[in-house]
Design a protein that fits this description.
There is one protein chain. The protein has 422 residues and is an alpha/beta fold. It has a domain at 346-419: DNA Cyclobutane Dipyrimidine Photolyase, subunit A, domain 3 (Orthogonal Bundle), CATH 1.10.579. The chain contains 18 helices and 6 strands. Helix 5 crosses helix 13 (317-339) and helix 12 packs antiparallel against helix 13 (317-339).
Length: 422
């Protein structure tokens, strides 16, 4: 089945070039070779026109909080993609930016010989602005494809301030999207012309990531304008690692999820958050694997849409609790960021939250800590300190402790505005 129209946005009024040599797919958010509507759309266009497909995956250096830890994790994913695309009918161009602006220039240059360009839709401001600027520079058509979650962004009629309100909406509108999953492998059994040969000048000016850096020899990263103090951790990124993590969760932890997921010492949460955040695995693949394991059929859905956390899917309580996290709570945040440019500002909070914070603005605050004290875990609370130092050292924080962690930052700051991250 083709990619649904509701997931495709045309970003400029430019034509498809009849003289272009290839279809260009800019892999800038959905960093995976399967379960990816963006790649699927690019493959469909290349197949329809019988033209080569070029996949350019880029890693920017100017994103907020870009650092060594994030870059190592992202490069693990690039290494996976290079391996998975090695024998597929598509060219792969992995590029690691060394100074701001290089990605935009590279994509604009690659697009000069493309029939058209397809890219991913990511809800954050920086990504949407970057796509808008690129669209204005191109002489060819640019399409943006939403592969973020089950509910397409354009399918929602508003943003939602509570999980309950979104859950009710999903229970009324989600089924058609559940029945239209992206292809597990859009390049399988596809015949396309050989990948295009790029001009040597392009390769020289914007050298793609070489085998050494993809294989883990990443000393070059220490020269990039990214955070150098947050070093890599012992967690491998990429689709292969994501799928192993998923299988481990489904096999060993799902059966205890509802009962034990809020007990940090048992640590039975999925561990999939970083892979979802970097686009190394799709929520569609995660949910489909779970539904297959549970033997689910669409007829199992309840006809009621009351916004309850359990009972709608017709699955085990553990499976329903996990689905509520990976669909309802995840897409609540994604949809809010897409529809609200002020998503990280105090003013974006719903009225009831702002009213509550104002009521308690004058409450006594016996403990106040500086940003440095919080970063170093130097508070009076040993549990909070332990959670913070796990975040610093391991790059992760148990979901239940994350809520305590965030609430205490609010409690230990002079004002809610000060508690917001800079």
């Amino acid at each position: 089945m083709p990619v649904p129209d509701i997931r495709i946005d045309i970003c400029n009024a430019k034509p498809v070039s009849p003289d272009g040599r290839y279809i260009l797919y800019w892999m800038n958010a959905a960093r995976r070779t399967g379960w990816n509507f963006g790649l699927q759309r690019a493959v469909d266009l290349a197949t329809e026109r019988q033209q080569p497909l070029l996949i350019a995956e880029t890693l920017p250096c100017d994103r907020p909080h870009a650092n060594l830890r994030h870059h190592h994790f992202a490069l693990d994913g690039m290494a996976d993609n290079a391996r998975l695309l090695n024998d597929r009918p598509a060219g792969y161009y992995p590029f690691v930016e060394s100074k701001p602006g290089q990605i935009a220039d590279l994509m604009a240059t690659l697009a000069t010989e493309a029939c058209m360009v397809v890219c991913d839709l990511h809800p954050l401001r920086e990504s949407r602005k970057e796509t808008k600027r690129l669209a204005a520079r191109l002489a060819v058509k640019l399409e943006q494809v939403d592969s973020n979650g089950f509910l397409p962004f354009k399918a929602a009629d508003r943003d939602f301030s509570t999980a309950y309100s979104l859950r009710r909406y999903l229970q009324r509108h989600l089924l058609p999207h559940l029945l239209h999953m992206p292809l597990p492998d859009p390049l399988a059994e596809i015949s396309l012309p050989p990948p295009p040969t790029l001009k040597s000048g392009i390769m020289k000016k914007w050298p793609p990531a070489d085998d050494a850096i993809l294989a883990g020899k990443r000393k070059r990263l220490t020269t990039l304008p990214i955070g150098q103090d947050t070093g890599p951790v012992d967690v491998t990124g990429g689709t292969s690692a994501a799928r192993k993590t998923l299988e481990m969760f489904l096999r060993k932890h799902l059966a205890y999820y509802e009962e034990c997921r809020n007990e940090p010492q048992k640590d039975i949460t999925s561990g999939l958050s970083p892979y979802l955040r970097w686009g190394h695995i799709s929520s569609h693949e995660i949910v489909q694997r779970l539904l297959d394991q549970e033997g689910w059929h669409p007829s199992d859905l309840s006809p009621e849409a009351r916004g309850k956390r359990s009972g709608w899917w017709g699955l085990s309580s553990d499976a329903e609790a996990f689905l509520d996290q990976v669909i309802t709570w995840r897409e609540l945040g994604y949809l809010f960021c897409f529809r609200r440019d002020d998503y990280d500002r105090f003013e974006s909070l719903p009225d009831w939250a702002q009213d509550t914070l104002k009521i308690h603005a004058a409450d006594p605050r016996p403990y106040l800590y500086s940003l440095e004290e919080l970063e170093m875990g130097r508070t009076h609370d040993p549990l909070w300190n332990a959670a913070q130092m796990q975040l610093v050292r391991e790059g992760r924080l148990h979901n239940y402790l994350r809520m305590l962690w965030g609430k205490k930052i609010l409690q230990w700051s002079t004002t809610p505005q000060q508690a917001l991250p800079p």
